[in-house]
Design goal:
Blueprint lengths: L1 H25 L9 H19 L19 H9 L3 H21 L1 H9 L13 H29 L1 H12 L12 H33 L21
Helix pairs in contact: 1-2, 1-8, 2-5, 2-8, 3-4, 4-6, 4-7, 4-8, 6-8
Length: about 240
C-alpha cells in the first residue's frame, strides 16, 4: 500500500523530465543562432527532476553504493565481516543511504527553486555535464549547510543510530575490542551531496545525448527544422 502511494510522485517527476526534454528538442533557433542559455536552464531543470526521482528514499533498489565511512574504521569493519557480523555493517550502510535520501527529499523544494532561477554568468562550456558543474560551483556550499540541518531528523527516520549501536556492540565482541565513533551528521551530509550532484550530472549527460539523437540522429544536421514524424524514422507501423 505504501509503495502505491509513492508511485505517483515518481511518475510525475518522470513525466516532468520527459516534457522538458521534448521542449528542449522542439525549441528551434534560426540558422546560425544559438539558444544555449534557455536550453541550459530547461535541461538542468529536467536533470534535477530526474535526479531527485532516482534518489527518492522510498524507491526500491537492489543495490546502492556503499556509504562513505572514515578510512580509519575499515579494519574494524573488515573484522566484523570476518567474524560473521557483516550484516550489522550492511544494515548501517543501508540506513545511512536512506538518511541521505531523506535529507535530500527535505531539500527538494529548495533545489527545484534554485535550479529554476539558475543562470550561469557565462555560457556553459562544451561538456555533457557543464550546467551541473556550474550549478554545483554556485550552490554546493549552501546546500551543504542546509543538509547539515536536515541530516539529524533524517537519521532518526532512517534507523541509522540503532544500526550504529549494533555495530558498536559487535565491535566489543571482537578478539580485540574496538571503539566505533562516527559523526553521522557529517557522513549523511557528504553522502547526500555526493549522491545528488552525481545523479544530476548523469541525468544531464543522458538528456543531452537523447536531445542530440533526436535532433540529428536521422541523417539531418542537428537543430535544423522540425523533428521527423514516425514515418520519417525508416520504420513501418
Amino acid at each position: 500500500m505504501h509503495a502505491a502511494r509513492i508511485r505517483p510522485r515518481i511518475f510525475s517527476w518522470s513525466v516532468a523530465a520527459s516534457i522538458a526534454l521534448i521542449a528542449l528538442t522542439c525549441a528551434r533557433a534560426p540558422a546560425g543562432e544559438v539558444q544555449e542559455a534557455p536550453d541550459a536552464n530547461q535541461l538542468l531543470r529536467a536533470a534535477c527532476a530526474g535526479a531527485l526521482a532516482s534518489l527518492d528514499p522510498d524507491r526500491a533498489e537492489a543495490e546502492h553504493p556503499t556509504a562513505l565511512l572514515p578510512v580509519a574504521l575499515e579494519p574494524t569493519l573488515r573484522a566484523l565481516h570476518g567474524t560473521g557480523m557483516g550484516g550489522r555493517v550492511d544494515a548501517l550502510d543501508v540506513a545511512l543511504e536512506r538518511a541521505a535520501r531523506l535529507a535530500l527529499r527535505e531539500e527538494q523544494a529548495w533545489l527545484e527553486s534554485a535550479v529554476a532561477s539558475f543562470a550561469p554568468a557565462t555560457p556553459p562550456a562544451d561538456s555533457d555535464a557543464a550546467s551541473s558543474v556550474a550549478f554545483r560551483t554556485a550552490h554546493e556550499a549552501e546546500l551543504r549547510a542546509r543538509l547539515a540541518l536536515t541530516a539529524g531528523p533524517a537519521l532518526e527516520g532512517s534507523g541509522a543510530r540503532d544500526a550504529l549501536e549494533s555495530v558498536r556492540a559487535g565491535a566489543t565482541q571482537l578478539p580485540l575490542r574496538r571503539a566505533v565513533e562516527l559523526d553521522l551528521v557529517s557522513i549523511v551530509t557528504e553522502r547526500a551531496l555526493t549522491r545528488f550532484f552525481g545523479a544530476l550530472a548523469e541525468q544531464e549527460k543522458t538528456l543531452r545525448q537523447q536531445r542530440e539523437t533526436l535532433r540529428g540522429g536521422y541523417g539531418g544536421p542537428p537543430n535544423l527544422g522540425p523533428l521527423p514524424g514516425p514515418e520519417a524514422k525508416g520504420g513501418s507501423r
